[in-house]
Amino acid sequence: MTQSNSAAKAAALLLAEMSSYGRTLVAFSGGVDSSVVVAAAARALGKERMAAVTAVSPSLPAAELDAARGFCAGLGLPHLMVSTEELKNPGYSDNGRGRCYFCKSTLLDAALRLAADEGFETIATGTNASDLTAGFRPGIGAAAERGARTPLADAGLDKAAVRAVARLWSLPTWDKPAMACLSSRIAYGLTITESRLARVERAESAVRDLLVDRGRGNVRVRDLGGSVRLEVDRELVDEVRGDPRVTRAVRTAGFEGVPMSVEVFRSGSMNSMNEVPR
Predict the structure, then answer these.
(1) pLDDT, tens only, 241-268
(2) What is the pLDDT averaged over residues 36-55?
(3) Among 27, 83, 111, 240, fewest CB within 10 Å belongs to which?
């Protein structure tokens, strides 16, 4: 089967899965997974029977919010926003290993209230089949408890299939790197604050600006408390280590006076670390 035929088959499975959902509200972060669900909802249900909803909080980079708005505007799709206040929840701000449970709970509870007010029957998320086997994902459990549907996973679409569908449908997110919320950059056990999130956002934005001619690669600034770790794609590690502009950009963003290292990007690398005492 050719790649295009495989993508077309995956797209058909997804549309069939969503065709019976009724009026659907899609939790939309701006990433490739949720963007495919948003586009699929519009195709399967019609634009008048769906909407995307984005949670606005300090853990969402401003650039990602702008991208989410632009995506929906580009397709002419309804886009709602809800303000979430997860930082007020000690289960979240204390930053234990179950942090994502509290984050997803806050988002889904807000989405459920919005759905009730606006007459949506279904809440859908961008969880894909790869996520179900990716290890520690407490947020998936929080969504399941609240009855959220997972059309990508239920249709059997893994990450590669999701990207293939996004490319088939000419979605601008098809090659977008994965982008977890800013809190995922803070080592477990370090209290999450707006200032901590803001300096991570500033540092990552500055590094991306310096690497803009290298394409849409992965950039993570990990706040480890007594040190900071910058993660980039393997082919860029040596270059970034030798570029004083990168070090200066991270320090200027708010990481002055702490040791800094540059390592290969690894998704979920914080999950392998022991908790850091506050």
Answers:
(1) 999 999 999 999 999 999 999 999 987 7
(2) 98
(3) 83
The answer to whether the predicted template modeling score (pTM) of the entire model surpasses 0.85 is yes
Share of the chain above pLDDT 90, in %: 83
pLDDT of residue 277: 37
Is the separation of the CB atoms in 204 and 64 below 8 Å?
no
Q: How far apart are CA 40 and CA 75, in angstroms?
A: 12
3-state secondary structure of 265: coil
CATH of 3-168, one of 3.30.420.40, 3.50.50.60, 3.40.50.620, 3.30.70.260: 3.40.50.620
* Residues found in the chain: 278
What is the pLDDT, as a whole number, of residue 125?
96
Residues 114, 82 contacting (CB under 8 angstroms): yes
Calculate the alpha carbon distances from 57 to 82, 110, 193 in Å: 9, 12, 12
Q: How far apart are CA 89 and CA 253, in angstroms?
A: 26
Euclidean distance between the first and the last CA atom of the chain, given in angstroms as a whole number: 53
The one-character DSSP state at 183 is G
Provide the pLDDT for residue 1.
60
Give every CB contact of residue 151 below 8 A, 6+ residues apart in sequence.
14, 17, 18, 21, 37, 40, 124
**Averaged pLDDT, 116-125:** 96
Count Cα atoms within 13 angstroms, Cβ side, for 152. 31
Give helix 3-18 / helix 32-45 axis angle, nearest 10°: 60
Residues of the chain with CATH 3.40.50.620: 3-168
Question: Into which CATH architecture does domain 182-272 fall?
Answer: 2-Layer Sandwich (3.30)
How does DSSP classify residue 21?
S
